TrEMBL record:
The keyword Transcription regulation applies. It comes from the Bacteria. Pfam families: GerE, Response_reg. GO terms for molecular function: DNA binding. InterPro entries: CheY-like_superfamily, NreC/VraR/RcsB-like_REC, Sig_transdc_resp-reg_C-effctor, Sig_transdc_resp-reg_receiver, Tscrpt_reg_LuxR_C, WalR-like. Keywords: DNA-binding, Phosphoprotein, Transcription, Transcription regulation. This is LuxR family two component transcriptional regulator. The modification 4-aspartylphosphate is found at D56. PANTHER family: TRANSCRIPTIONAL REGULATORY PROTEIN NARL-RELATED, TWO-COMPONENT RESPONSE REGULATOR. Residues 5-121 form the Response regulatory domain. One of its GO terms (biological process) is regulation of DNA-templated transcription. Residues 147-212 form the HTH luxR-type domain.
Length: 214
C-alpha cells in the first residue's frame, strides 16, 4: 500500500527532525521532505508528490499562511495541517481561510499528530478542541457581509443544517434538533459543501460567518 506522503515545514531544526523521526515510525506515513521556510514548502510540493503538509505559521520570508494559500491554489488535492505553539494564535483563522485543513499545537503527542495526518488526508478537518470556541469567536467578530448569492442556492433545510453545523453540532445532534435521520443530515451536509464549493465542514462554517448568514 502506498503511504501518505508528508512534507514537514518548520524553521526550527529540532522540531523538524522530531516530527520526521516520529512520522517515520509509521509504515503508512512517508516524509518526503523537511524544509525550513514557506517558500521551500511550496517548492517541495512542486517537486514531489505530496499528500499532506505539516506547516508552521511563523517562518522567515514566506510564512505558513502565504505558503498554504499558494499550495492549496496550485495543488487542491494537497491538505495542509498547521502547527502552532499556541492554540489561541491570532493567525489561525487566516490560515484556515487560506485553505488549511486544520491545526495542531506543537505539544500534541506524536501518535495524535500521526492520526491527524491520516484524518486530514481523508478530507476531514482537525481543530484543537481548546481553540474551537476561540476560533468561532474570531469569526463572529469579523465584519459581516450580506448573504452571498450561494446562500440563495441552498434550500431552507440546507440553511438550517448549515446554521447548526456553524454552532458546532454533530450530525446526530442536528438530526435530533431538526427531526431528521442522521443519514439524511449527512446528505444535506454533502449538498451544502458542494453548493458552497468548500472542502469540509470547517470551511463551511468559515464561509457562513464570512458571509453574515449565521
Amino acid at each position: 500500500m502506498t503511504g501518505i506522503r508528508v512534507v514537514v515545514a518548520d524553521d526550527q531544526e529540532l522540531i523538524r527532525s522530531a516530527l520526521g523521526i516520529m512520522l517515520g515510525l509509521h509504515d503508512d506515513l512517508e516524509v518526503v521532505a523537511e524544509v525550513d521556510s514557506g517558500s521551500a514548502a511550496v517548492e517541495a510540493c512542486r517537486k514531489h508528490r505530496v499528500d499532506v503538509v505539516l506547516m508552521d505559521i511563523r517562518m522567515p520570508g514566506v510564512d505558513g499562511i502565504a505558503a498554504t494559500e499558494l499550495i492549496t491554489a496550485e495543488h487542491p488535492e494537497i491538505r495542509v495541517l498547521i502547527l502552532t505553539t499556541f492554540d489561541l494564535d491570532e493567525n489561525l483563522f487566516a490560515a484556515l481561510r487560506a485553505g488549511a485543513g486544520g491545526f495542531l499545537t506543537k505539544d500534541t503527542p506524536g501518535e495524535e499528530v500521526a492520526a491527524a495526518v491520516r484524518e486530514v488526508h481523508k478530507g476531514h478537518s482537525i481543530v484543537s478542541p481548546r481553540a474551537t470556541r476561540s476560533l468561532l469567536e474570531v469569526a463572529k467578530r469579523a465584519a459581516p457581509r450580506g448573504p452571498a448569492p450561494l446562500w440563495e442556492a441552498l434550500t431552507g433545510r440546507e440553511r438550517d443544517v448549515l446554521a447548526a453545523v456553524a454552532r458546532g453540532s454533530s450530525n446526530a445532534e442536528i438530526g435530533a434538533e431538526l427531526h431528521l435521520a442522521e443519514t439524511t443530515v449527512k446528505t444535506h451536509v454533502a449538498a451544502v459543501l458542494r453548493k458552497l464549493g468548500v472542502r469540509d465542514r470547517l470551511h463551511a462554517v468559515i464561509w457562513a460567518y464570512d458571509n453574515g448568514v449565521v
